[in-house]
Amino acid sequence: MKTISTIILLITLLILPTVLHQRYASVLSKTNMRIKIIVLLMFLSCNLGWAQVKKPVPMPQMQTVGEGVVWRISDNKDEHGSLLPPWKEIRITNIFEFKRSPVIGEKVTVIPLDADISPLDLRVIKAQKKENPCNERLPNWWEVELEPIKLKEFFEIEPIPTRAAEFPFNVAIIYPAVKVARQMKKEQLMRGALPKGVSINTVKAAIDLNDDRKLDVVIVEYCCGDTKKPADDCDYTCGKTFKKVRNSWKLIDTRTPC
To answer: I need a surface site. Which of 55, 198, 215, 238 has the fewest CB within 10 A?
Structure first.
Protein backbone atom coordinates (compact mmCIF):
# COMPACT_ATOMS: atom_id res chain seq x y z
CA MET A 1 0.00 0.00 0.00
CA LYS A 2 2.81 2.43 0.87
CA THR A 3 4.56 1.72 -2.46
CA ILE A 4 1.38 2.36 -4.49
CA SER A 5 0.74 5.64 -2.67
CA THR A 6 4.30 6.74 -3.27
CA ILE A 7 4.02 6.04 -7.00
CA ILE A 8 0.74 7.96 -7.22
CA LEU A 9 2.28 10.97 -5.49
CA LEU A 10 5.31 10.94 -7.77
CA ILE A 11 3.13 10.75 -10.90
CA THR A 12 1.02 13.62 -9.57
CA LEU A 13 4.13 15.66 -8.94
CA LEU A 14 5.35 15.12 -12.50
CA ILE A 15 2.20 15.52 -14.61
CA LEU A 16 -0.19 17.78 -12.64
CA PRO A 17 1.51 21.08 -13.50
CA THR A 18 1.63 20.12 -17.20
CA VAL A 19 -2.04 19.15 -17.35
CA LEU A 20 -3.16 22.28 -15.61
CA HIS A 21 -0.94 24.45 -17.76
CA GLN A 22 -2.37 22.99 -20.98
CA ARG A 23 -5.94 23.59 -19.83
CA TYR A 24 -5.58 26.89 -18.04
CA ALA A 25 -2.37 28.33 -19.44
CA SER A 26 -3.42 31.95 -19.16
CA VAL A 27 -4.40 31.63 -15.51
CA LEU A 28 -1.84 29.27 -14.05
CA SER A 29 1.36 30.21 -15.81
CA LYS A 30 2.44 32.18 -12.75
CA THR A 31 1.41 29.56 -10.18
CA ASN A 32 2.91 26.47 -11.81
CA MET A 33 5.93 26.44 -9.52
CA ARG A 34 3.77 26.97 -6.44
CA ILE A 35 1.74 23.86 -7.26
CA LYS A 36 4.90 21.81 -7.61
CA ILE A 37 6.11 22.96 -4.22
CA ILE A 38 2.80 22.17 -2.52
CA VAL A 39 2.65 18.65 -3.98
CA LEU A 40 6.28 18.05 -3.05
CA LEU A 41 5.60 19.10 0.54
CA MET A 42 2.62 16.71 0.66
CA PHE A 43 4.84 13.90 -0.57
CA LEU A 44 7.57 14.60 1.98
CA SER A 45 5.04 14.91 4.81
CA CYS A 46 3.52 11.49 4.07
CA ASN A 47 6.91 9.80 3.91
CA LEU A 48 8.04 11.47 7.14
CA GLY A 49 5.00 10.03 8.88
CA TRP A 50 5.83 6.52 7.60
CA ALA A 51 9.44 6.88 8.77
CA GLN A 52 8.31 7.73 12.30
CA VAL A 53 6.21 4.56 12.70
CA LYS A 54 8.25 2.16 14.85
CA LYS A 55 8.10 -1.53 14.24
CA PRO A 56 7.14 -3.49 17.35
CA VAL A 57 10.03 -5.24 19.07
CA PRO A 58 9.39 -8.94 19.80
CA MET A 59 9.09 -9.81 23.48
CA PRO A 60 12.57 -10.95 24.61
CA GLN A 61 13.22 -14.28 26.27
CA MET A 62 14.07 -13.62 29.91
CA GLN A 63 15.54 -16.07 32.42
CA THR A 64 15.95 -13.89 35.51
CA VAL A 65 14.61 -10.63 36.90
CA GLY A 66 16.35 -9.51 40.05
CA GLU A 67 17.52 -6.57 42.08
CA GLY A 68 20.81 -5.18 43.26
CA VAL A 69 22.30 -2.27 45.17
CA VAL A 70 24.79 0.26 43.81
CA TRP A 71 27.90 0.17 46.01
CA ARG A 72 30.41 3.03 45.73
CA ILE A 73 33.81 2.34 47.25
CA SER A 74 36.20 4.97 48.58
CA ASP A 75 39.25 5.42 50.81
CA ASN A 76 37.59 8.40 52.54
CA LYS A 77 35.35 8.08 55.58
CA ASP A 78 33.44 10.44 57.85
CA GLU A 79 33.53 10.35 61.68
CA HIS A 80 30.86 7.62 61.66
CA GLY A 81 32.77 5.36 59.29
CA SER A 82 30.54 5.99 56.26
CA LEU A 83 32.32 6.18 52.91
CA LEU A 84 32.62 9.53 51.16
CA PRO A 85 33.66 10.66 47.66
CA PRO A 86 35.75 10.73 45.61
CA TRP A 87 34.77 7.18 44.62
CA LYS A 88 37.42 4.85 43.32
CA GLU A 89 35.21 1.92 42.29
CA ILE A 90 31.52 1.19 41.79
CA ARG A 91 29.87 -2.23 41.77
CA ILE A 92 26.43 -3.79 41.99
CA THR A 93 26.03 -5.88 45.13
CA ASN A 94 23.32 -8.01 46.80
CA ILE A 95 22.32 -9.90 43.63
CA PHE A 96 20.50 -12.98 44.92
CA GLU A 97 17.55 -13.79 42.63
CA PHE A 98 19.33 -16.11 40.18
CA LYS A 99 17.70 -19.55 40.44
CA ARG A 100 19.97 -20.88 37.68
CA SER A 101 23.63 -20.20 37.04
CA PRO A 102 24.21 -17.50 34.40
CA VAL A 103 26.87 -17.98 31.73
CA ILE A 104 30.12 -16.29 32.72
CA GLY A 105 30.90 -13.55 30.21
CA GLU A 106 27.31 -12.98 29.15
CA LYS A 107 25.68 -9.64 29.91
CA VAL A 108 22.83 -8.49 32.11
CA THR A 109 20.89 -5.25 31.73
CA VAL A 110 21.08 -2.99 34.78
CA ILE A 111 18.19 -0.51 35.17
CA PRO A 112 18.71 2.24 37.78
CA LEU A 113 15.61 2.69 39.94
CA ASP A 114 14.47 6.19 40.91
CA ALA A 115 17.70 7.61 39.47
CA ASP A 116 18.06 9.68 36.32
CA ILE A 117 20.58 7.37 34.64
CA SER A 118 20.03 5.31 31.51
CA PRO A 119 20.17 1.49 31.68
CA LEU A 120 23.47 -0.20 30.88
CA ASP A 121 24.77 -3.72 30.19
CA LEU A 122 27.38 -5.39 32.40
CA ARG A 123 29.18 -8.72 32.04
CA VAL A 124 28.80 -11.54 34.55
CA ILE A 125 32.28 -12.28 35.93
CA LYS A 126 31.40 -14.75 38.70
CA ALA A 127 28.49 -16.92 39.85
CA GLN A 128 28.68 -18.85 43.12
CA LYS A 129 26.12 -21.49 44.11
CA LYS A 130 24.59 -20.96 47.57
CA GLU A 131 22.31 -22.99 49.80
CA ASN A 132 18.93 -21.45 50.49
CA PRO A 133 19.45 -19.46 53.73
CA CYS A 134 15.92 -20.15 54.94
CA ASN A 135 15.78 -23.90 54.38
CA GLU A 136 18.45 -26.20 52.93
CA ARG A 137 15.71 -28.35 51.40
CA LEU A 138 14.55 -25.43 49.26
CA PRO A 139 16.17 -24.83 45.83
CA ASN A 140 19.65 -23.34 45.75
CA TRP A 141 20.41 -19.94 44.28
CA TRP A 142 23.44 -18.23 42.73
CA GLU A 143 25.20 -15.16 44.06
CA VAL A 144 26.29 -13.21 40.99
CA GLU A 145 29.14 -10.73 40.57
CA LEU A 146 29.21 -8.21 37.72
CA GLU A 147 32.05 -6.21 36.24
CA PRO A 148 32.67 -2.77 37.83
CA ILE A 149 30.78 0.27 36.53
CA LYS A 150 32.82 2.88 34.66
CA LEU A 151 30.14 5.42 33.67
CA LYS A 152 30.82 8.83 35.24
CA GLU A 153 27.12 9.38 35.98
CA PHE A 154 27.32 6.74 38.71
CA PHE A 155 30.28 8.54 40.27
CA GLU A 156 28.64 11.97 40.19
CA ILE A 157 24.99 11.37 41.07
CA GLU A 158 23.61 12.24 44.49
CA PRO A 159 21.93 9.46 46.49
CA ILE A 160 18.15 9.35 46.59
CA PRO A 161 16.55 10.57 49.85
CA THR A 162 17.16 8.39 52.94
CA ARG A 163 20.09 6.57 51.28
CA ALA A 164 23.78 6.74 52.22
CA ALA A 165 26.16 8.14 49.62
CA GLU A 166 27.93 4.79 49.25
CA PHE A 167 24.62 2.97 48.52
CA PRO A 168 22.84 5.69 46.49
CA PHE A 169 20.03 3.63 44.90
CA ASN A 170 18.89 0.19 43.82
CA VAL A 171 18.78 -1.34 40.36
CA ALA A 172 16.71 -3.93 38.53
CA ILE A 173 18.67 -6.66 36.76
CA ILE A 174 17.52 -8.58 33.70
CA TYR A 175 19.29 -11.67 32.35
CA PRO A 176 20.05 -12.20 29.52
CA ALA A 177 20.53 -8.54 28.62
CA VAL A 178 17.61 -6.69 27.00
CA LYS A 179 18.98 -3.49 25.48
CA VAL A 180 15.62 -1.78 24.98
CA ALA A 181 14.37 -2.43 28.54
CA ARG A 182 13.42 0.74 30.39
CA GLN A 183 11.90 1.74 33.69
CA MET A 184 8.42 3.25 33.57
CA LYS A 185 7.83 6.09 36.01
CA LYS A 186 5.23 5.61 38.71
CA GLU A 187 3.35 8.64 37.40
CA GLN A 188 2.75 6.67 34.18
CA LEU A 189 1.19 3.68 35.95
CA MET A 190 -2.54 3.02 35.96
CA ARG A 191 -4.10 0.87 38.66
CA GLY A 192 -5.89 -1.23 36.06
CA ALA A 193 -2.62 -2.10 34.33
CA LEU A 194 -1.06 -3.63 37.46
CA PRO A 195 -1.38 -7.23 38.66
CA LYS A 196 -4.50 -7.87 40.72
CA GLY A 197 -4.11 -6.78 44.33
CA VAL A 198 -1.00 -4.65 43.73
CA SER A 199 -1.05 -1.06 44.98
CA ILE A 200 0.91 1.58 43.10
CA ASN A 201 2.61 2.74 46.31
CA THR A 202 4.23 -0.71 46.72
CA VAL A 203 5.71 -0.81 43.20
CA LYS A 204 9.51 -0.77 43.38
CA ALA A 205 10.19 -1.28 39.67
CA ALA A 206 7.94 -1.08 36.61
CA ILE A 207 9.70 -2.20 33.44
CA ASP A 208 8.94 -2.08 29.73
CA LEU A 209 10.89 -4.91 28.06
CA ASN A 210 10.26 -4.26 24.36
CA ASP A 211 9.97 -0.48 24.01
CA ASP A 212 6.22 -0.44 23.35
CA ARG A 213 5.55 1.80 26.38
CA LYS A 214 3.54 -0.94 28.05
CA LEU A 215 4.20 -2.58 31.39
CA ASP A 216 5.87 -6.02 31.16
CA VAL A 217 7.51 -6.60 34.57
CA VAL A 218 6.49 -5.37 38.02
CA ILE A 219 8.57 -5.73 41.20
CA VAL A 220 6.69 -4.92 44.40
CA GLU A 221 7.89 -4.62 47.98
CA TYR A 222 5.57 -4.24 50.97
CA CYS A 223 5.18 -4.88 54.68
CA CYS A 224 4.84 -8.60 55.30
CA GLY A 225 1.73 -8.04 57.41
CA ASP A 226 0.02 -5.72 54.93
CA THR A 227 0.42 -6.01 51.15
CA LYS A 228 -0.96 -2.47 50.67
CA LYS A 229 1.65 -0.86 52.92
CA PRO A 230 4.98 0.30 51.39
CA ALA A 231 8.14 -1.42 52.62
CA ASP A 232 9.57 1.84 53.98
CA ASP A 233 6.93 1.85 56.71
CA CYS A 234 7.89 -1.41 58.45
CA ASP A 235 10.75 -3.56 59.73
CA TYR A 236 9.97 -6.82 57.92
CA THR A 237 9.47 -6.62 54.18
CA CYS A 238 8.22 -9.09 51.59
CA GLY A 239 8.20 -8.88 47.82
CA LYS A 240 6.89 -10.32 44.58
CA THR A 241 7.85 -10.13 40.92
CA PHE A 242 5.29 -10.39 38.13
CA LYS A 243 5.75 -10.76 34.38
CA LYS A 244 3.14 -10.22 31.66
CA VAL A 245 2.62 -13.47 29.70
CA ARG A 246 0.06 -13.51 26.86
CA ASN A 247 -1.66 -10.44 28.25
CA SER A 248 -1.99 -11.94 31.74
CA TRP A 249 0.16 -11.37 34.82
CA LYS A 250 2.21 -14.34 36.08
CA LEU A 251 3.89 -14.46 39.49
CA ILE A 252 7.52 -15.46 38.85
CA ASP A 253 9.18 -14.82 42.23
CA THR A 254 8.38 -14.22 45.90
CA ARG A 255 10.59 -12.94 48.71
CA THR A 256 10.00 -13.32 52.45
CA PRO A 257 12.23 -13.09 55.54
CA CYS A 258 13.47 -16.39 56.98
So the answer is: 55
The pLDDT tens digits for 213-235 are 999 999 999 999 899 999 988 98
Give me the pLDDT at residue 61, please: 82
Whether 16 contacts 23, CB under 8 Å: no
DSSP string, 195-215: PTT--GGGEEEEEESSSSSS-
For residue 256, the SS3 value is coil
Using CA atoms, how far apart are residues 214 and 195, in angstroms rounded to an integer? Answer: 13
**DSSP state string for 218-245:** EEEEEETTEEEEEGGG-SSEEEEEEEEE
Under 8 Å between Cβ of 223 and 231 = yes
Round to whole Å and give the CA distance between 227 and 211.
Answer: 29
Per-residue confidence band for 67, with pLDDT thresholds at 50, 70 and 90: very high
d(CA 155, CA 86): 8
pLDDT digits (tens, 9 = 90+) for 3-37: 455 445 444 544 545 544 455 455 445 555 555 54
Q: For the sheet with 141-146, list strands across it.
A: 89-93, 64-73, 170-175, 107-112, 120-130, 141-146
Q: What is the pLDDT of residue 22?
A: 53
- Nearest Cα neighbor of 240 from 210, 208, 198 is 198
Q: How far is CA 189 from the centre of its chain?
A: 14
CA distance 45 to 39: 10
> Angle at Cα 207 formed by Cα 164 and Cα 91, nearest 5°?
35
